[in-house]
Each structure stands twice: as C-alpha cells, then as structure tokens.
Amino acid sequence: MKTVPTISSTTEPITIVGGGLAGAEAAWQLAQRGIRVRLYEMRPQRQTEAHRTDRLAELVCSNSFRSASLDTAVGLLKEEMRRLGSVILAAAEQTSVPAGSALAVDREQFAEVVTQAIASCGEIVVVRQEVRDIPEGVCLIATGPLTSPSLSYALQERLGQKYLYFYDAIAPIVTADSIDRSIVFPASRYGKGGEDYLNCPMTRDEYYAFVDAVLAAEKVPVRDFERCIYFEGCMPIEEMARRGRDTLAFGPMRPVGLVDPRSGQRPYAVVQLRQDNASATLYNMVGFQTKMTYPEQRRVFRMIPGLEKAEFVRLGSLHRNTFVNSPRVLSPTLQLRRQPTTFLAGQLVGVEGYVESAATGLLAGLNIARLVAGLPCVVPPVTTALGSLLAYVSNPKRRDFQPMNANYGLLPPLQGRERGREKRQQLARRALNDLQEWIDRFGLAPPKAPVEAMRAVGL
C-alpha cells in the first residue's frame, strides 16, 4: 500500500464540520482514542431544507438502516462497523423498532442517543456555528448532501471543479390511529420478519386510478439553474410511474409474498407502512418519496385503501443533494489527493445510505487518528463491503460518477462457481476474515465497545 504524507502529533483539536452520521461517528472514534475534537454543526443557527431539529445525526429520510442480514452487502457493512466499534450502529440497535429483517429506528430516540453520546465525551466540543471556508490544519468535511452554499463554494474553489447535483425525496409519515385497520393487514413479504409491516391492498382498478392521479398531480417545480438527477434508490414515485403504468407495481408497491386475509388472495398492488417510532404511533410510507405539492399529496395519498382519513405528520418533500466527483479528487483513505490533511466523508463523497455514510466517517476518524500519530493512513481490504465501496468512489478511471450503495457487485469475485445465497455467504465470510486480519495488523480494534462507553456515562 502506498504511504501517504503524515504530520507530527499536535495538541490542537481536530476540526470536524458537520454533525450528521459521518461527522458524529468520526468525532466519537477520535475521542475514544484521546484526541480532542471541535465538532461544528450549523443547526439551529442555520437550518437546512430537510432537517427539523438541532440534534446530531438527525435522520431526514427513511428511519431504516436497511437489511441486517449478511445475505446483503449493507448487512455485511454493519457487521464490519460493529467490529470497528461504531457508535452510530450501537445507537441504532439501542433504539430499534420492529422492521422485519431490517434495522429500523425510532428516529427521535436515535438522534437523542447519538447527541448525548457525543456530549458525554470530554474530548469533544460541539460548536453551533456555520463554517464558510475550509478549516486550516487537519480537518474533516462531513456536511452531507445539504452542504451550505458558502461552504459548497469554498469546496468548489479548493477542488477546482464543478459539483454534481441530484435530488432526494422524503417519504410521508402518517399517524397510526388514522389508519383504517379494517382494510390494512399486517404482514411482511413472504412472511420474512413476521407482521412488522402494515399493507394497504389495492385492486387493479384502484391501482391504475392511483397511478393516473400521481401522474396528473401538480409537482414542485425544479429550479432552472439546477440539473435534475435522481438516485435510483430514492426515486420519487411519479418518476417511476412516468416510466410505465406498471412500474410501481413491480417496485415499492409489489405485492409478492402477501395475501389479503379478507379475500384470501394476493392484492394487485400494496402500499406498505413501516413503524417509525418505538411507541408505534407513527408509520412511514415505504418507498413513497415524492415531489407532489402538499395539497396534492393529501388528495392523492388518501385514495389509498386504508388511508382515506390519513393524518400526515410529515409530507414528502424534495431537496437538493450535493456530492463531490470523488474519483477525480479523493484517495481511498478519504483524503484529498492534493491536500492530504483535509478529509471528506459521508454522502458528500458519493456514497448513498445511512450505513454507508456512517462507515466512511468511521474510517475517516481512524485515519485522522493515525495521521496525527505520524502513522500512514489505511484502507480496508477491497474484499470487504467498506473497502469495495471506497474503491468505487476513489477510482480515478471512473467516468460519469454517480452515488452508490454498498452491494455485493462491488466485491471481487470468488474463485469458485457459487451462486445465489451460497455465493453471498462466502463473500461475507471472506470479507470478515480479511477485515479481522486488517484490524489486527494495524491495531484498529476499538479501545472500548461503544455500548460499554455509553453505559459508563449513563446512556
């Protein structure tokens, strides 16, 4: 592995800009190694288009951290983070709510636990102030997809390139007591995870009427000076419907593995609702990101059987997400190639998803600690979920760069001819073996497990 420039140990605090998942994770990792941190978070002094509170690690889209199974790459990534001592993962597991085979959280409790965990670290000082320029010295920029215009401009000047833009849409949330339980039925597709989801069944006629209403509804206009690029994992439902009237039925509304107990038959389509908080008073409309106007959302979504009298505590919205063309400027250690004392992490580097964002913050924290100690920065093996994701976002040969989730397609292939689940299981075993060897080789084991550290301060 090529050695990167290092600096001598310093008593100055490390500056981290951004108190989201990546910034909070990086700050925790540094603090656990006795390194002082000054963590800047501009909220509530300056709010974003999507955030609603001043808590650290506030979740603004789904409340799901996705699959917990090693059959999926994101499940493998969570296990890798667990072995590296991730505070974000520990907080998510502490505040989890039923979600079948997925890890979903009570978003308010989750943000509160992370905020208190960071506040309990004597080495971390949280500064509620907007940062408008790149800090001097060793720093981490983890401001996420809603980076403020001033800092975006400073980054653009520093990188000497234009930013890329895409849009992300937030799914609505309804109150549990406004859902008609005589119509919806609890079940998970194929029975996986028991009855953790509520399903709103649709007949063929109801489905097509709904699709037509979605297509005809008034939408929030896109500003002329911004390009509209949607990440496939957060595609607004109207964009999917525009691709064909049956697209939704094969996407978020697919009814496979579900049987309506009233009719004993599979519905033509379903809208799934997932528990959004621990008290089960709120439900998230799974996969129903949208840019319809608020009045149109209320009208169209109340066409869904079981949601005729739905009370919406949050409607869908659209906001601009920003990410760097990382293959041109970023090394796999998450350092800027031309300025290795500046690190980037989170969605800003072109990874998609809560888990992926936190994982890059974790590695950035580990590498900053090594840089401060005069040690070379490190990269996880490409055979791991995290290592393969970093290889994707930092490959200088990549063109037409777009954000990416962790997926098994990024990992190097196996030597044998395994397929399906057996292949995924072997990829996971190889990844965890290689990760452990990497942890042991560079002494990256966490000083104390996050759960123990949080318990020590009463969390």
Layout of SSEs?
Blueprint: E1 14-17, H1 21-32, E2 37-40, E3 64-67, H2 73-83, H3 87-94, E4 96-97, E5 102-105, H4 107-119, E6 124-127, E7 139-141, H5 149-159, E8 164-170, E9 173-175, E10 185-186, E11 197-202, H6 204-216, H7 237-242, E12 269-275, E13 282-285, H8 294-301, E14 312-314, E15 317-323, H9 326-329, E16 335-336, E17 339-344, H10 354-372, H11 385-394, H12 420-442, H13 450-456
Parallel strand pairs: 1-2, 1-7, 2-6, 7-17
Antiparallel strand pairs: 3-5, 4-5, 8-15, 9-13, 9-14, 10-11, 11-12, 12-13, 16-17
Helix pairs in contact: 1-10, 2-10, 2-12, 3-4
CATH superfamily of the largest domain, called what?
Answer: FAD/NAD(P)-binding domain
Query: Looking at CATH, which topology of the largest domain would you report?
Result: FAD/NAD(P)-binding domain
Distance between termini? 39 Å
Main sheet attributes: strand count, strand direction, barrel closure:
6 strands, mixed
Order of helix and strand elements from N to C terminus: EHEEHHEEHEEHEEEEHHEEHEEHEEHHHH
Low-confidence stretches: 1-9
CATH class label of the largest domain:
Alpha Beta
